[in-house]
């Protein structure tokens, strides 16, 4: 009897945990798209809960505050993007540069940008976003170094990669109000060639 | 008599125009610092009028709508910066790169960023900011080409300069939440050297 009960509980627990994880994921994805489309001022836990088809109570069980929800959302999507980037098998540096730049032109960058800008005026958000940004930034830098086969023991290589990621961020910003795709493609091709020379 | 009256009026008109121009300038400068410090949601014509020590009525005489005031403010400060940049006599490309990057790390960039991000979610602002951004961007590009002695008739040079300005914009973004000065200085030094090689 004891074994049956214990086994039954374990079986029930697993789907419950799966459901909870699925709810959490739905909330995080809804939070990112909400932030990207409506900005910080239009993004609340209630709006996201409704978008995700989750009750407000369940949403608050997962994320007690608005800051919890949106910083977790940007981190979650950033991790998904990092995993996808690591799985990439690019055929050359131009492809790597294009893939890195792509990180900054989608809804994740748009969402993160809204969060950064809001954090610059809201102290309760500032500390958390700064910490998140540093963590995500370090991870992106590591992936970039790896994909570019850059040897950071050489002087200047670290700063070369950093500047490339700054350029990618700037290209993301240029894409905020208009579709900057055709211009961006030419800039990426040119700088990939320059970078190839600089990295040797 | 006629001559005296007419001459008197002209004399009176000049200081009145001067006062009006000074009021306008005070409003524009107050609007930029307000936008930089409080963001779009905290920036209204009333708040700016008070900051500038101008009556709300006088402010609305100069700028009938909130959109008028803030787009004019970002444009005004961008023009001031362009004039200052054109007057620069840099001693080499590293100094030029540093001066261009400086454009994106001060209160003007912070104000413009708030305006861009707000414009991405507010249709009545979007069109005007897109047009303003294109105008300011073209002007900055022209100045960069001139200061860098870049010859755009060579293939790739145009995109090289564009990528540099994108990097400058990305460096501005990285400076939003923390003082990124020391890292930025190293990136600027490295990229100025790369650029020097690329531009020949």
TrEMBL record, chains A, B:
Residues 44-63 bind DNA. It comes from the Bacteria. Gene3D superfamilies: Tetracycline Repressor, domain 2 (1.10.357.10). It comes from Streptomyces aureus. Residues 21-81 form the HTH tetR-type domain. Residues 1-22 are annotated as: Disordered. Transmembrane segments: none annotated. It holds the Pfam family TetR_N. Coiled coil: none annotated. This is TetR/AcrR family transcriptional regulator. InterPro entries: Homeodomain-like_sf, HTH-type_TetR-like_transc_reg, HTH_TetR. PROSITE patterns: HTH_TETR_2 (PS50977). Keywords: DNA-binding.
